[in-house]
Amino acid sequence: MSNHKAEHQHITDYWVYGLILVILLALTFITVYMVHLELAAWSVAIALGIASVKATIVLAYFMHLKFDNMLFKILVVAVVMLFVSFILLTFADYLYR
Amino acid sequence: MTTIPYKSYLEPQGKYTGLLDWLTSTDHKRIGLMYMYAIGIFFIIGVLLGLLMRIELFKPGETIMGPQTYNGIFTVHGVIMIFMVVIPGLSAVFGNLFMPIQIGAKDVAFPKLNLLSWYIFMAGAILAVLSQFTGNGPPDTGWTFYAPYSTQTGTNVLMAVTAAFVLGFSSILTGLNFIVTIHRMRAPGMTWFKMPLFPWALYSTAWIQLLATPIVGITLLMLIAERVFKIGFFDPALGGDPILFQHLFWIYSHPAVYVMILPAMGVITEIIPTFCQRRIFGYKAIALSSIAIAGVGYLVWGHHMYTSGMSFTARWIFSFLTFIVAVPSAIKVFNWVATMYKGSIALKTPFLYALAFIFLFMIGGLTGLSLGSLATDVYVHDTAYVVAHFHYIIFGGMGFAFFAALHYWFPKMYGKMYNQKIADIAWLILFFGFNMLYFPQFVLGLQGLPRRYYDYMPQFETGEVLSTIGGFVLFIGIIMMITNLIIAARNGPQAPDNPWGGKTLEWTIPSPPPMENFDTPPVVSKEPYDYE
Amino acid sequence: MSDVAIKHDEHRDDLGAKLGMWLFIFTELLLFGGLFLVYAVYRDIYAEDFHLGALQLNVTLGTLNTVVLLISSMTVAMSITAIQRGNKKLSMQLVLLTVLLACVFLVNKYFEWGAKFEHDLYPGSDLVLQFKRGSIIFFGLYFFMTGLHMFHVVIGMVVLMVMWFKLKNTTINKDDNVLLENGGLYWHLVDLIWIFLFPLLYLVT
Ligand SMILES: [Cu+2]
Q: What is the ipTM of this complex?
């Protein structure tokens, strides 16, 4: 069996995490602020869009996906696609009833 | 490396003796056997409940039980057979026993987690059995727990649902363990496409266990919340939509069918080249079709809901996808038959079971297509035709593959050989009894006999009587097969290391295998089925 | 048997351990995924009622909790950097800080739920049962989703405390810290789910 002790030793600097937090907080406040703009139908789409961006950032930096094995990236994308297809197929029912 | 003196995994390993030696063991083979004994017992319970239903249906009118008892019994039969026998069956038993050996590993990736899965399984199983005897009588919803009835009935649904939830947890952990094992623990030189096809099947299965089970998990949790806290998820009176329950339930439960059948196909793929002494035809096609089945299998759940009030758009989409998922299954069947062509076939017991599998699975699969097509399904939905179809798939498919695996690997598991003549006779009785039991149900279903009733109109009597007799023939076959194996395990003649001339790694080590499988870690350079 | 024991140690496989953790995270994501699917369907059916329901929720408290969770996500990520650089003390402090932030989250949640219960806004209450059907569902989903999330916060705290002890007795150290990475991944999962819960429940107005 191959030994994978020190395969990846990418150490992220503290300031990178700090920067990421600032970006995430900024996005959070933007979302909250958007609500007051009364964009009606768009507000949900925008809120979800920003949430997705935030989630991607958390996955990439906090969860190290950016620096990790390619396999993990592929799997995460596959799982997200699977979930999206669940939604789409379910709505093939609800949207056309 | 020095050779460790040979000691089989069945012998006491020190520290503890007797039962405790097994209950604390993290060895994958021992855990596999522990699953097998537990599942064997549940299987017999399930079979006996099935026989009780057959007796009730022997004559029209009330024969031995009333409607409420009958409802309880078919629910319990379903819950036990689905969640405790066929879903864990092949992967937890033979996957644990032989997958690590076939890929040249000493154990699974997380042996302790593996043992934990077994304990969780047992906890769930005990809850499920308890749910029959406590509360206000056994649950009477059918194994599908359809809302809103399941949110309102006074019977012991809560406990049965909790049991199913716990059992799902065990299934998830086994899947997780197998995926990591197959990714990380293959022997040096064993690339993905040098891996035997049973591990390939288990790999696809594990992804289904891992990604589909959480959906039913959350669904059952919502059902529990609805019953306990009156959160209106599925009850129309509280704003819920019962059809949404069906969606969520089948998002899991259709892929679960592949949790049952994919490892079964994997077993058959191991047996056929061995007994034909021939390289498997279309190795890559078989390997990738497992993945394809797992992938597309996620997207067809709606074919269980054609008559539920789902939109027409959704119905034709699901019907279309259902036809697509039949393609990779057919690819496998063609490859099996092509492997046999011009092979030097040895008609031994495991091969006979494999042949029975192909025959029964074909019937089950083709009748499945008639259920997957919209127009015909509306006619036979919820009739005995469906009952016949899924028993051909689940029992004729998964069950016969389990028996095939049992007879194939038995000499390796116990180092003993069974009486092959009796095994062949038992096979014949089983095969005959099975068809006599379930084939009439196709006809009855087409004639309009609905499922899940304790009573029927007199014109169905001939078919029901035939069916009941078939049930008893099948039962005799099962008893004969099991007795034969128990006798062999106790004092059968010594089995050679490689009785069938197999080529995969488990046949290169002693029977029964030593504790860590290989004295020296194997290095693989050849394809798994290099006959000729 | 002794040489077997030695081999076990060699057998350490960080990538395998991490793969196992990611697979577990997938199951958790799909567990909540099922809930999000339910949410999406009912929001489609009862858009108006969901809008009114969301107005009843306290956006300030929700935002505060989002901030708390994001900061805690950063501290636990930093603790890994710390141990990888061999700074055990800082790493332990950061893990502890993460647990404290988790406590803040729970206290906040306690006040939020407490206020709801005071106004009889809980599933099955006489008041809620008189609501329009979409609102019944909205409050059901609100309590079920945040409740399940809270349960994961508690599990995450336990996991982090275990990490703290393992750091303390140097089971987790500069050269062997995949366990802390995995513990961190779990905590980020808790954050990840909240990132979606927050706008869906509080901001669908
Ligand atoms: Cu199906």
A: 0.93
